[in-house]
């Protein structure tokens, strides 16, 4: 096992994360006020930066829960600084999820903090560590949808409302995909400690391919339809219409235009 000593720098918020949060704040302000000459560019930067912030918080939740469960090595690895460059696979945790947002408007689960599970005792603690990440997405989704289900949209500019709706879509899809009990995803990590050794041993080889299997299934039209029907139902229950999320995605992709959204929202 890795030994680790606590240092103040291990928990100091990274300037990289501060920079990403600053971009979120500035572009959010530009989207709200209409300051940007091209609103779509501001929405693109706002949603992308906010999405990366949520990915960092997702991984931080895993690491922080692991720390309090007994894995003191997470500090020395830089996981408590919210710096995405410290993750085991920055490509899988940050770059790939952003690419999937741009291509398909779906919240790809990131994930790459290495937890030394041997330091942790108790099945409940192992399950909680795995659940902490997607629960952060749930919390983020609650914040994004609050103006809708609180009926507090008076005075909220159209572009900002659409950006929040699309960001909420990303958080809900990320939470649901992460909670799937598929090897390699957090949902499987929640139930894994409760499975027999033989079952875990048989399933273990599938872990590197779990996410690929999920997305391969989502390419099947019938599966894709059911998945997004569930997403739409959840968002409608939170006060967000299909039109809001659709036009939010179209505004996010500023390099293309949809006349329907420009006059219909």
From TrEMBL:
It is found in: Cell membrane. It is a multi-pass membrane protein. This is Site-2 protease family protein. GO terms for molecular function: peptidase activity. CDD domains: S2P-M50_like_1 (cd06158). Its main location: membrane. InterPro entries: Metallopeptidase_M50B, Rip2-like. GO terms for biological process: proteolysis. The chain crosses the membrane at residues 12-32, 41-61, 90-115, 127-150, 162-185, 206-228. The keyword Ribonucleoprotein does not apply. It comes from the Bacteria. The keyword Membrane applies. Belongs to the peptidase M50B family. Keywords: Cell membrane, Hydrolase, Membrane, Metal-binding, Metalloprotease, Protease, Transmembrane, Transmembrane helix, Zinc. Its cofactor is Zn(2+). It comes from Streptomyces lancefieldiae.
